[in-house]
Specification:
The chain is built from 11 helices and 9 strands. It has helices at about 15-25, 45-55, 70-80, 100-110, 145-150, 165, 185-190, 215-225, 225-235, 245-260, 275-294, and strands spanning about 1-10, 30-40, 60-65, 85-90, 95, 115-125, 140-145, 160-165, 195-205. Strands 1, 2, 3, 4, 5, 6, 7, 8 and 9 form a 9-stranded mixed β-sheet that branches.
Length: about 290
């Protein structure tokens, strides 16, 4: 069994050695792996650093350079290059736990023996060892990313180990030459046909860094409004039965925000439920005022 590790990187020369060392530590568990690195236009010494890794000839590394086009485009490219039966993303500022490959190997058969599943869903730890967000409510629960976040309020970063065959059927959909879109947009597409098996164990570690996408979410919103507008629009087209009240308001408020930023007019036909249409109408003016301040 082979695992393809996908990493999109941009000027992360100070972080990549920790990820590299974590992969080397995990090789003792016998899982064959390849590390596909897409350098998204780095101007530091990333190429030289990775060449040093390659020269050690310990990890099967495939390095590709591209002009800066954003993380999601880089990952789309990496998925096409992956040759493993399993695929996992690992950001350049994150790294694997000491027994990550063991946990993946122990659970891989559960993924391949169930055609309903597109992946195994693991936890992520902060650098200090605490879990990012919340644990899953049930061990080995069959679920979706949409249900976990919008119906169960399971917060925090989670790590998906994908069935490669299914993962290759999907890609991150970008709008109007934007360079970023939340991974959740693709996950929700996958949720429509497949499910995940949630496992309450961590396989990656890392904390948000100062120049990362998540730490600079307001800037990210402004740089990719069309993608986020489509993301929230697609959610409002869904059956939102059992979606938590707080999440329902979250979606509507952000739909108003990104509608304003993209100058899209209100189209009631895209909102499925009467309740959501009512909430949109009463929140519209306050939302526009707040959007202007944003």
């Amino acid at each position: 069994m082979k695992l393809s590790i996908l990493t999109a990187t941009y000027n992360r020369v100070r972080h990549l050695p920790k990820l590299y060392e974590s992969i080397k530590k995990n090789l003792k568990y016998g899982l064959v792996c390849e590390w596909i690195i897409i350098d998204d236009g780095s101007t530091d010494k990333t190429r030289e650093l990775v060449q040093g890794f390659i020269d050690e000839d310990i990890v099967n590394i495939k390095y590709f350079y591209q002009e800066n086009n954003g993380k999601m485009a880089a990952i789309n490219k990496a998925v096409k290059l992956a040759t493993g039966e399993l695929i996992v993303d690992c950001d350049s500022d994150d790294y694997f736990t000491d027994n990550a490959f063991e946990k993946i190997s122990e659970n891989a058969d559960k993924l391949f023996n169930n055609k309903e599943l597109y992946g195994l869903l693991f936890l992520k730890e902060e650098d200090n060892g605490t879990i990012s967000g919340k644990y899953f409510k049930k061990q080995e629960e069959t679920t979706t990313m949409f249900d976990l976040y919008f119906k169960e309020d399971i917060q925090g970063e989670k790590i998906i180990v994908f069935n490669s065959t299914i993962r290759k059927l999907f890609s991150h959909q970008l709008e109007k030459n934007e360079k970023f879109i939340t991974e959740a947009r693709m996950y929700h597409k996958m949720d429509e046909k497949y499910k995940l098996l949630a496992i309450n164990e961590a396989i990656e570690q890392g904390s948000y860094i100062d120049d990362g996408y998540t730490k600079n979410i307001s800037k990210t919103f402004k740089q990719a409004p069309y993608g986020y507008y489509m993301y929230f629009k697609e959610i409002l087209k869904k059956d939102m039965k059992n979606v938590l009240w707080s999440k329902r308001l979250y979606v509507i408020k952000h739909y108003i925000l990104f509608g304003y930023l993209t100058k899209n007019k209100f189209d009631a036909s895209v909102i499925k439920s009467r309740l959501n249409k009512f909430l949109y109408r009463i929140l519209y003016l306050p939302g526009i005022i707040k959007s202007k301040k944003f």
